């Protein structure tokens, strides 16, 4: 069948209104891609309509007896739960109170026992301290007696100890002390006359000096090598050996160089 070409529509100039020139559409790459994408966009799926059907719920009718039974059961369950919770709370509170009370009573008993123990220890220590002090005094007396016996025995059996004591005293003097004077017992003076003449010593007899000792005087210096000072030195050594704690409080004994 032959397709007919439509005849063009002619518009007279007097019938034409305001017209504008027609332009070809923009067919740049970006615009072309956009149009192609719009043409290829799939159609949205149709939305299925959801109907909400309301159903009526019919509650079972309860008789008065059934309703009272339900209420009574709920009340009983509430009472039982409350009783159990109360018992648990009571047990916990009672345990904590009992524990605290037990700790306090136990601590009080411990404190009382400690006080009794301290009192007992003090009662035991007092006699021991008294005995220790008495024993210490006895030992000191024995030490003094022993020291005296040792010194006297040494001097009686070894007369040369006096000469040794004088030599020790001379060593304590400073250089050029001046004339030497010896104060000693008259019995010892006779033993030293010859040596005194050789050494140029001056002998001063003094009955108050115990035999076996002397006092050396030279210028402003004085050296004590008397029996008493030597006895004190021996006693001090014995005390330091036998009673270290008590001996620490004792002054040093022995001969002394005392410048005047």
TrEMBL record:
Domain Flagellar assembly protein FliH/Type III secretion system HrpE stretches: 112-233
Alphabetized GO MF terms: cytoskeletal motor activity
Any one Gene Ontology BP term: bacterial-type flagellum organization
Keywords: Bacterial flagellum biogenesis, Bacterial flagellum protein export, Cell projection, Cilium, Cytoplasm, Flagellum, Protein transport, Transport
Family named by the database record: Belongs to the FliH family.
Function field: Needed for flagellar regrowth and assembly.
PANTHER family per record: FLAGELLAR ASSEMBLY PROTEIN FLIH, YOP PROTEINS TRANSLOCATION PROTEIN L
Name this protein carries in UniProt: Flagellar assembly protein FliH
Organism: Marinobacterium mangrovicola
């Amino acid at each position: 069948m032959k397709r007919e070409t439509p005849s063009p529509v002619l518009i007279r100039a007097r019938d034409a209104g305001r017209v504008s020139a027609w332009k070809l559409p923009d067919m740049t790459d970006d615009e072309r891609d956009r149009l192609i994408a719009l043409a290829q966009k799939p159609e949205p799926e149709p939305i299925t309509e959801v109907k909400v059907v309301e159903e009526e719920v019919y509650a079972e009718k309860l008789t008065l007896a059934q309703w009272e039974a339900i209420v009574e059961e709920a009340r009983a369950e509430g009472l039982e739960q409350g009783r159990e919770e109360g018992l648990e709370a009571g047990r916990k509170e009672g345990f904590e109170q009992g524990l605290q009370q037990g700790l306090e009573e136990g601590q009080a008993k411990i404190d009382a026992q400690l006080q009794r123990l301290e009192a007992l220890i003090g009662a035991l220590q007092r006699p021991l301290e008294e005995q220790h002090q008495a024993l210490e005094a006895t030992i000191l007396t024995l030490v003094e007696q022993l020291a005296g016996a040792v010194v006297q025995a040494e001097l009686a059996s070894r007369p040369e100890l006096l000469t040794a004591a004088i030599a020790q005293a001379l060593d304590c003097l400073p250089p050029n002390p001046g004339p030497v004077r010896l104060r000693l017992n008259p019995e010892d003076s006779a033993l030293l006359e010859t040596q005194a003449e050789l050494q140029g010593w001056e002998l001063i007899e003094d009955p108050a000096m115990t035999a076996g000792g002397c006092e050396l005087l030279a210028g402003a210096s004085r050296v004590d090598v008397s029996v008493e000072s030597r006895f004190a030195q021996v006693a001090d050594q014995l005390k330091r050996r036998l009673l270290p704690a008590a001996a620490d409080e004792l002054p040093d004994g022995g001969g002394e160089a005392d410048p005047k």
